[in-house]
Amino acid sequence: MVRYVYDFHEGGRDLADLLGGKGANLAEMTRLSLPVPPGFIVTTEACRAFLTTGAEPEGMSREVSQHLTALEESAGRRLGQPDDPLLLSVRSGARFSMPGMMETVLDIGLNDDSVLGLAKASGNERFAWDSYRRLVQMFGTTVMGVDSALFEQAMTFLKETRDVPDDVHLDANDLAQLVETYKNVIHLETGEYFPQSPAEQLRRAILAVFESWNGERARLYRRREHIPDDLGTAVTVQRMVYGNLGPDSGSGVAFTRDPATGRAGLYGDYLSNAQGEDVVAGIRNTVPLAELERLDTRSYRELRAHLRTLESHYRDLCDIEFTIERGRLWMLQTRVGKRTAEASFAIAAELVDEELITPAESLARVSGDGLARLMFPRFDASATGEALAHGLPASPGAAVGAVVFDSAEAVRRAAAGEKVVLVRQETTPDDLPGMVAAQAVLTSRGGKTSHAAVVARGMGKVCVCGAEELTVDIEVRRFTTRDGTVVEEGTVISVDGSAGAVYPGAAPLVDSEVMRYLETGEQGERAAGVVDAVAGALRQADGIRRLEVRANADTPEDAARARRFGAQGIGLCRTEHMFLGERRKLVEEMILATTDAARDRALDALLPLQRQDFISILEAMNGLPVTIRLLDPPLHEFLPDRTELAVRIAATEARGDTPDPHDTELLDAVSRMHEENPMLGLRGVRLGLVVPGLVAMQVRAIAEAVVERTRAGGSPEAEIMVPLVGAVEELRIERDEVERVLAVVSEESGIPVSCPVGTMIELPRAALTAGRIAEEAEFFSFGTNDLTQTTWGFSRDDVEAAFFSAYLDKGVFAASPFETLDREGVGRLVGLAVAEGRATRPDLKIGVCGEHGGDPESVHFFHTAGLDYVSCSPFGVPVARLEAGRAALSETEESDSR
Ligand code: ADP
Ligand code: MG
Ligand code: MG
Predict the structure, then answer these.
(1) Angle at which helices 584-592 and 661-673 cross, to 10°
(2) Number of domains in the chain
(3) 346 near 530, Cβ under 8 Å?
(4) Which residues make beta-bridge pairs with 250?
(5) 169 catalytic residue (yes or no)
(6) Residue 80 belongs to a domain
(7) To 5 degrees, how large is the angle CA 664–CA 668–CA 673?
(8) In angstroms, what is the span from residue 809 Cα to ligand 3's centroid?
(9) Quick check: is 626 in a domain?
(10) Same domain, yes or no: 161 and 75
């Protein structure tokens, strides 16, 4: 038979799916014999049944009554008993904590009679009426749907008439009067009376929790976070304990260690004579926990012992809620606590030192995203002062600039050399130029998937979004903070995209100690804790990861940095940057050449320059593989802009002069080569097949660089990669050419040069025919940017700013497919290509060189897909190393638990 209700004694944290996080952890604490007020949990299963049928499942209310009776017996009091009522709290709690779920209702069981009994039994009339007014207010807002502002107004009005600073100064009569006012508010607003029957209060509160699962905010949140809609929430019903019984009572929150730095030692806030959320609501000033030690030494010591018990039991930082009732301590909630990136590394390392977790487990406690945040410079916390506002940390980093309110102004000032921060309510595609020009973007609305957030992350630009406490007035070009501070256009502010905070003025920046360590290998002193912890985590990851990590680098400087960061080679060395600058002239000549001789002259001039590029990179990466990609972009990218040329020629003609013949020639070429969709045009391997001499020149440059490095005693390991292949025939033709040139250079130099030849897999057709392509390829490298574009049929530049935030909002995808690999679509092509490629050639080396190679979630996918390496930007290398280790770890965990 299905059960719908569990006593705290019956559950545990392994039942979180059924009992919700809060309920399961209360049961766990009960099992540990911590002082938890008794109670029971109505399961998520009951909620699911209620939501499908619209009625309580059969047997649920009987089970609730039975558990209630047991609770009453153990307390020696009945729910709502007139002379000494048992009171209850009704708390929601799903598997994942979610905004928008029903707020807890405290003090259920009070009515016009039992409030008098409570006053007598407790000997504290004020307390009884305070509890009753809390119940009417909470029940009125959360169960009956009355606007909470109406209750707050009544409270404020009463405080003003009595001329008292806060609620503690209202006496029993005041509070009794407030109860009457509240009840009237409810009647006026709903046409219903506040229910006097305790049983009805309990029943309605439980059902209201169920119903809140489908509240609008909760649904929206689940869609964005991709939490299934059919999990349901559990309901915890628990005996009340009273923190509002006088100065020897109170409530508080605590962490087993500092969630900001990870430093060991209790951390938290306490508020005496307070109940429930008072401590975090900011209605009165709280005191730090150290103060509790003075106020109530016994409870403090007991609390400290319980926190130790919890931390060693959960083997992690715990965050808890507690209440002291007349000197007696009660534990009301615990969970594994949230923490900053710095704290996550520090705590993981400390827990290893304390032998609470194994070094391998510590890897599960840290993340690549956290490491990435620690690699940015940050503001010196001792010098930032009070924050102007807080919002969501949408894109990490720290930036300083003058406030501007529109895109045009941002562009104008940036062009004049000023650093600016673009401030908007929300951004739209029209703001794109301003976002590009700004150091940071700040919005007052929108979540982490808003336009501002998505686009800023895509550009690697600092962004704080949804700073709702700011009123942004574009018209008068100013924003106003919560406390009324007015910030005009041109004022300098500092934006911390890692923490989601905004500060006045130019806050001083401090370099990242973690970055310094990664760059130099020196651990420094100031942040030794976190640097040691990061170093340890990377060592751990390197020890167990199966994926190799390479970097995408086109210059010797980037190659050297990547190597310091731990790269095991270069997975993508683009050659197009080597055709820019002064060399553009030579490329132009090659394109315009009408005779073989003219073209050869241009190519001959390019050859030594290319060779030198490769020599430097192979030297920086001595002994490690360097995958060099043959020229990929369409050639007209190296020619001047068509409109500019046309205008120049027209202007000259208008003056009656003859246009420069070179310009005319160029315009002809540009017009001839014009493409409607260059992304799908003459590029990649197609260039090599139709532009005579180009591949031969590039391959000769590579081969001669290898010869040169070999002669110098180095160990060059060049690999030649052909882009944008769609058919094996393309690769075969190009490869023949490559091998012909390698043979010629070997012959000429007397040094045998052999480079593996492979291809990028970046077109669906390449993935679909990977079995054939592998006949000609010694390695594959997934170009996941292009593969994503061509699989979805959209171009990143056109769509990201235009409609991605709408798609994310509508739940079409959970994350931008350019940030996190789309497993369902692109991922299937990757899986297919790996399987069929290896079926043809079992020792086929397979990697990825798209930006996804540095994205934590995608790295896990590439690990599972069986790739040999990921390649990402030099700065992404440490993150990828860490995540590759974590991926290997979760794999062993999965097989252990099988
Ligand atoms: P949330 O999920 O928002 O933290 P909680 O269910 O934890 O909501 O409850 C809100 C507040 O009420 C918390 O401060 C909690 O400690 C307090 N509270 C909950 N149950 C009880 C109880 N039985 N006795 C006293 N206070 C309680
Ligand atoms: Mg809570
Ligand atoms: Mg590509």
Answers:
(1) 70
(2) 3
(3) yes
(4) 272, 324
(5) no
(6) yes
(7) 145
(8) 29
(9) no
(10) yes
Pick the atom of ligand 1 nearest to 332's CA: 16
User: Could you tell me the two tokens for 391?
Assistant: 């919002």
> Which residue's structure tokens are 């990590």?
549
User: What's the domain range around 426?
Assistant: 377-511
Ligand with the closest atom to the CA of 92: 1
Contact present, 46 and 56 (Cβ < 8 Å): yes
As a whole number of angstroms, the distance between CA 171 and CA 182 comes to: 16
Q: Is 434 left (phi over 0), alpha (psi -120 to 50) or beta?
A: alpha
State how far the Cα of 83 lies from the Cα of 113, in Å rounded to an integer. 8
Q: What is the CATH number of the domain that holds 261?
A: 3.30.470.20
* CA-241 nearest atom, ligand 1: 24
How many Å lie between the centroid of ligand 1 and the Cα of residue 724?
59
46: three-class secondary structure by DSSP: helix
Is 47 annotated in the active site?
no
Cα 27 to averaged position of ligand 2 atoms, centre (Å): 15
> Of the ligands numbered here, which is closest to the C-alpha atom of 572?
3
pLDDT, tens only, 857-885: 999 999 999 999 999 999 999 999 999 99
CA 805 to CA 448: how far, in whole Å?
9
Protein residue with least CA distance to atom 23, ligand 1: 240
**Which ligand is located closest to the Cα atom of residue 782?**
3
- Residue 18, CA distances (Å) to 24, 48, 54, 236, 698 in order: 8, 11, 20, 12, 63
897 has a pLDDT exceeding 70: no
Do 233 and 98 have their domain in common? Answer: yes
Q: Are residues 279 and 164 in the same domain?
A: no
Query: Does residue 158 sit in the same domain as residue 55?
Result: yes
Residue 416 in tokens = 């004049």
List Cβ neighbours of 679 (8 Å cut-off, separation of 6 or more): 789, 795
Residue 363 half-sphere exposure toward CB, CA atoms < 13 A: 26
Closest to 380 (Cα-Cα) out of 496, 262, 532: 496
pLDDT digits over 507-546, tens only? 999 989 999 999 988 776 655 689 999 999 999 999 999 9
CB-ligand 1 contact for 277 (6 Å cutoff): yes
Is the distance from CB of 709 to CB of 618 less than 8 angstroms? Answer: yes
The last residue of one of the domains, among 290, 322, 339, is 339
Q: Dump pLDDT digits (tens) for 307-318.
A: 999 999 999 999
CA distance 343 to 420: 31
Residue 104: CB within 6 Å of ligand 1?
yes
pLDDT digits (tens, 9 = 90+) for 655-709: 999 999 989 999 998 998 899 998 999 999 999 999 999 999 999 999 999 999 9
pTM: 0.86
Spacing, Cα 300 to ligand 2 middle (Å): 20
